[in-house]
């Protein structure tokens, strides 16, 4: 019986990819906190999910069926953050919010990594019998 890693990891590997990408976006916001006219960006799981879902093609078994092409979700899922306190120089980075979001994302990354590690440990035990 073949092992499908896509099913075995239960999506935890994809969640790690999302958390890594979000950490990069948040770190970029923090690095540009003093850049005039810089617009803070963020990425949400919903936007990433909708972006990936829109790439799927629907199968049809009849030529008269409507084709499942979609133009939604063409962007990478990056969204602009609405500033709570706009700056005079046009920068929308709120340093306290960015640091809090980064810390929360870091904890969620650690949690996803722990789940993935447990999945892999379980697979090792199943394969070796220990």
UniProtKB/TrEMBL annotation:
Q: Which InterPro entries match?
A: Flag_bb_rod_N, FlgB
Q: Which UniProt keywords apply?
A: Bacterial flagellum, Cell projection, Cilium, Flagellum
According to the entry, every stretch annotated as the Flagellar basal body rod protein N-terminal domain falls at 22-39
Query: Which stretches are annotated as coiled coil?
Result: none
Provide the Gene Ontology terms for cellular component. Answer: bacterial-type flagellum basal body, rod
Q: Where in the cell is it found?
A: Bacterial flagellum basal body
GO:BP terms for this protein? bacterial-type flagellum-dependent swarming motility
User: Known Pfam families for this protein?
Assistant: Flg_bb_rod
Q: Give start-end positions of Polar residues composition bias.
A: 82-91
- Presence of keyword rRNA-binding: no
- Location of region: Disordered: 63-91
Looking up NCBIfam families in the UniProt record yields:
FlgB
Question: How does this chain assemble?
Answer: The basal body constitutes a major portion of the flagellar organelle and consists of a number of rings mounted on a central rod.
Q: Which family does it belong to?
A: Belongs to the flagella basal body rod proteins family.
Q: Describe the task this protein carries out.
A: Structural component of flagellum, the bacterial motility apparatus. Part of the rod structure of flagellar basal body.
Q: Please name the PANTHER family in this protein's record.
A: FLAGELLAR BASAL BODY ROD PROTEIN FLGB (PTHR30435:SF12), FLAGELLAR PROTEIN (PTHR30435)
Question: What protein name does the entry list?
Answer: Flagellar basal body rod protein FlgB
Q: Which organism is it from?
A: Marinomonas pollencensis
């Amino acid at each position: 019986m073949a092992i499908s890693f896509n099913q075995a990891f239960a999506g935890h590997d994809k969640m790690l990819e999302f958390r890594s990408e979000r950490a990069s976006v948040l770190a970029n916001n923090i690095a540009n906190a003093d850049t005039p006219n810089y617009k803070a960006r963020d990425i949400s799981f919903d936007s990433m999910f909708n972006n990936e879902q829109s790439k799927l093609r629907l199968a049809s078994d009849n030529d008269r069926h409507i084709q499942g092409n979609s133009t939604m979700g063409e962007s990478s899922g990056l969204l602009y953050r609405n500033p709570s306190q706009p700056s005079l120089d046009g920068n929308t980075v709120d340093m306290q919010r960015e640091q809090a979001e980064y810390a929360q994302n870091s904890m969620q990354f650690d949690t996803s990594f722990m789940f993935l590690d447990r999945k892999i440990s379980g697979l090792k035990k199943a394969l070796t019998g220990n």
